[in-house]
Design goal:
The protein has about 130 residues and is of the alpha+beta class. The protein folds into two domains: about 90 residues, GMP Synthetase, Chain A, domain 3 (2-Layer Sandwich); about 35 residues. It is built from four helices and three strands. Strands 1-2-3 form a three-stranded mixed β-sheet.
């Protein structure tokens, strides 16, 4: 697979900024959670498709409703994107759920639990050692 060029990275960043702005400020759909963020964007080199990774803070039902709202507003979002970014082609938007933030929080909690158990075990060993003396 070919590495993305600087131009493609610049386009990805610009599209990500504009998508974030459009989703948070322009769309008035009540299904879309106000705590929705665009975590990453990958635009194909031919500018035909754009895969937008979306993270929704909330429960599963809220995330599902947000994706329904985004998919129904994709034509409007694409049109606004074309107005704000001057590209040869305006990419077709594909929204993908991004669970990486939730996964990171879950892993962080698990690590904290393991560290907490190790701290308790080591302090228990020290207490046992002191009792034997």
């Amino acid at each position: 697979m070919k590495k993305s060029s600087h131009k493609n990275q610049r386009i990805n960043g610009e599209v990500q900024r504009e998508l974030s702005r459009i989703i948070s400020m322009e769309i008035k759909d009540p299904r879309i959670n106000p705590m929705t963020s665009v975590t990453d964007v990958i635009v194909t080199p031919d500018l035909k498709f754009c895969k937008a990774f979306i993270s929704v803070l909330g429960d599963e039902e809220s995330a599902k409703a947000t994706f329904e709202g985004l998919n129904s507003a994709s034509g409007y979002i694409r049109r606004e994107l074309a107005r704000s970014i001057n590209l040869r082609n305006t990419p077709e938007l594909i929204f993908v759920m991004d669970n990486s933030i939730e996964y990171g929080i879950t892993m962080s909690k698990k690590i904290d639990e393991v560290i907490g158990k190790n701290d308790e075990a080591s302090s228990g060993d020290e207490l046992n050692g002191e009792e034997d003396e």
